[in-house]
């Protein structure tokens, strides 16, 4: 399913050109045109899903299998020191294109890529209460 106004759907259909490094019937892997580091790629499911809440588990599993293959290829080619696998959901989480996609970002000692957060803590019994509520939902 393609969404008319989705830039990633247009890239997948070939309407907008991309630097594609891999493609099969379910996914397209492209170089990010505004990379956090050299070698930064995006994995795009060909079917349009707005975010992780919409993607089916089978497709999500296949996507992560592909991510492992792509990450190993990037490690071999770039000899990077590490790798971030990143996926944002919702504006507040940094999602800017509302077509599910995964970033694979090669990392190097001393690079300028920044990903982090201020550590919080739970109040008395709060973690256990939350753990139980999540467990019941699963």
From TrEMBL:
<feature type="domain" description="HIT">
    <location>
        <begin position="7"/>
        <end position="114"/>
    </location>
</feature>
<dbReference type="Pfam" id="PF01230">
    <property type="entry name" value="HIT"/>
</dbReference>
<dbReference type="InterPro" id="IPR001310">
    <property type="entry name" value="Histidine_triad_HIT"/>
</dbReference>
<dbReference type="GO" id="GO:0009117">
    <property type="term" value="P:nucleotide metabolic process"/>
</dbReference>
<dbReference type="InterPro" id="IPR039384">
    <property type="entry name" value="HINT"/>
</dbReference>
<dbReference type="InterPro" id="IPR019808">
    <property type="entry name" value="Histidine_triad_CS"/>
</dbReference>
<dbReference type="InterPro" id="IPR011146">
    <property type="entry name" value="HIT-like"/>
</dbReference>
<protein>
    <submittedName>
        <fullName>Bis(5'-nucleosyl)-tetraphosphatase (Asymmetrical)</fullName>
        <ecNumber>3.6.1.17</ecNumber>
    </submittedName>
</protein>
<dbReference type="GO" id="GO:0004081">
    <property type="term" value="F:bis(5'-nucleosyl)-tetraphosphatase (asymmetrical) activity"/>
</dbReference>
<feature type="active site" description="Tele-AMP-histidine intermediate">
    <location>
        <position position="101"/>
    </location>
</feature>
<dbReference type="InterPro" id="IPR036265">
    <property type="entry name" value="HIT-like_sf"/>
</dbReference>
<feature type="short sequence motif" description="Histidine triad motif">
    <location>
        <begin position="99"/>
        <end position="103"/>
    </location>
</feature>
<keyword id="KW-0378">Hydrolase</keyword>
